[in-house]
Amino acid sequence: MTEKRIDFSRKDGVARIILANPGRRNAVDLAWCKAFAEAAMACAADDGLKCILLAAEGDFFSVGGDIDDFIANRDHLRSHVLEMASLFHLGITRLHHGAAPLVAAVNGMAAGGGFSLALTADIVLAKRSARFASAYTKSGLSPDGGLSYNLPRLVGMRRAFEIIALNPVLDAETALDWGLITRVYDDAAFADNVEQVVQTLASMPAGTMAAVKRLLAKSPDASLQQQLDAEADQVSRLAASPATLDVLQAFLSRRSKG
Known about the structure:
There is one protein chain. With 258 residues, the protein is an alpha/beta fold. The protein folds into two domains: 6-202, Alpha-Beta Complex (2-enoyl-CoA Hydratase, Chain A, domain 1), CATH 3.90.226; 208-257, no CATH class. It contains eleven helices and ten strands. The strands form two sheets. A six-stranded mixed beta sheet has the order 1-2-3-5-7-10, with helices on both faces. A hairpin with a 2-residue loop joins strand 1 and strand 2. Helix 1 packs parallel to helix 3 (77-97), helix 5 (147-155) crosses helix 6 (157-166) and helix 9 runs antiparallel to helix 10 (224-239). The longest helix has 21 residues, at 77-97. The model has no long low-confidence stretch (mean pLDDT 95).
């Protein structure tokens, strides 16, 4: 019987991609990459999604690449890892370019590919006991999963090089201070706080968060005038949409009663 790698579900506008192999610390192997890519592509094809939650079972978010799997495929390791990385990157690309915001809930160690995966999210929530490490060079590897793209944009080039080259293990508070993650919650309150964030995003009018993602994605390469034009176009489209008009009307009704 094949070990499960990922649980995937969709309900009420929320997709949940749950790393579901805690016995192997949610390590990344070829089967994991295939399951992750399939879940990400299903999200990309669902226009009704308002939020995607990426979380994990057990005490680890993910320790990254499965070394046992690498050694088992040592006779064709280059092609094996290339296939893994290609599927991993397909999933990351679909989630990055998708309309629904991605929330990563980091419940424990996120290392290697697990670290890269967490940093692809639009919002990264962490338990106070969570830990983060690049870990690639410690194993003689270079980064994948978009780490060399996302990390410099979050912390700057020099600190990104330090994190990748020297492999410090960062606690959640340090990760927050360095701008790697969004919020830290006490372990006991973590699940409730994650769900609150998810439901807040899911309650937004249709198209709102997709617009935010598009605008922020364009901004690094846009001039001020280009970004202002994009903002004007986007806010006018949303203002005239039925979903936003309903929200505005509800706001006026509450104000008139208050």
